[in-house]
Design brief:
With about 180 residues, the chain is α/β, with parallel strands linked by helices. About 40% of the residues lie in helices and about 20% in strands.
Length: about 180
Amino acid sequence: MRIETDPAIDSPEIPRKGEQTAGTVAEHGIRVGVLRMSQVHDAQKQGLVTFLIQIAREKGVSAYVGDGGFRWSAVPVKDAAHLYRLAVEKTGPGLSTYHAVQEEGVSLREIAETIGAGLKVPVVSIPPEKAQEHFGTFAHFATLDMPASSEWTRKTLGWDPTGPGIIEDLKKMKYF
């Protein structure tokens, strides 16, 4: 589980150059707030989940890898917007890192099952060695376990996300 004080992940798949630059700016006495976004969603768009929907449409099946236990954190778009406002208003001197997370970890299996029901396509498990074949360049994300906490963010900024969960929004989507 990632927390706000964890260092930025720096990889070719998930570049964090902006976060690194923010740290450099903060060293010069500027107040800087970094918001690490999870799967920002509403009933029209779903962050990375949007790509899972597209792949399910193309392949005719909604898939997850292995037992589907990989998890993604999520936040409704309105709550993410409110968090941005709070960060602008309340960030103090130096660098503060916040997590835009309402749900700490929603399983990819549950996401795939909801997509399958919405698209009316079968839901299948893909063995890890076949993930690249099925998901293509998205395989990296389909095999990431990305739970995160926003406990410190909530306490520090008084942020209390109240929007619907990602599964609830996925059920409201108009898939066709």
